[in-house]
Write a structure and sequence with these properties.
This protein has 152 residues and is of the alpha/beta class. The chain has a single domain, classed as 3-Layer(aba) Sandwich (Rossmann fold), CATH 3.40.50.2300. It is 34% helix and 20% strand. It contains 5 helices and 6 strands, in the order E-H-E-E-H-E-H-E-H-E-H. The protein has a 6-stranded mixed beta sheet with strand order 2-3-1-4-5-6, with helices on both faces. The N and C termini lie close together (9 Å). The relative contact order is 0.18. Keywords: Phosphoprotein.
Length: 152
């Protein structure tokens, strides 16, 4: 987990979980942010569970920026749109899993349940449906963040 805005020692003692939300579609990013209690365009969101830190959501529209964010080492969980173009979230998840160690949890959004096998191939930790389920997505994110906290 990180200090707000990924800046250690910035005078704020709060710990946040930094969530990267990748989609080329601003509507999909907005669905994810709303499900997590965030307002599109604002970085912070409500706490999903009392046992977890506040969320800091980072919206990303291109694969290059996703990789740049991962290079900082401050991403605690990534939600990747499997329908994004030209670089889909499943291929990006596979690349991230292969290139970053330790790798934070990865959740891939899929439009068709038949694509779950592709999410498994990508080595994502979880998948969730598109359009976003406003009750299911926070449950998945909570489970992934808890699992990550137990490993640290």
């Amino acid at each position: 987990m990180n200090q707000p805005n990924g800046s250690p020692g910035a005078g704020d003692d709060r710990v946040v979980a930094r969530i990267l939300v990748y989609s080329d579609d601003s509507g999909t990013r907005a669905q994810v942010l709303q499900a997590l209690g965030a307002v599109p365009g604002e970085r912070t969101a409500a706490r999903l569970h009392p046992d977890l830190p506040d969320l800091e959501c980072v919206e990303v529209a291109t694969a290059a920026v996703v990789l740049r964010e991962f290079d900082t080492g401050t991403v605690d969980l990534a939600i990747l749109d499997g329908e994004a173009a030209p670089v889909g979230g499943m291929g990006l998840a596979k690349q991230i899993r292969d290139e970053y160690e330790p790798c934070p949890p990865l959740l891939v959004l899929i439009a068709r349940s038949a694509d779950r096998w592709l999410a498994d191939w990508s080595r994502a930790d979880a998948s969730a449906p598109l359009p976003v389920d406003p009750l299911g997505l926070p449950r998945e994110v909570t489970a992934l963040l808890r699992r990550r906290a137990r490993r640290q």
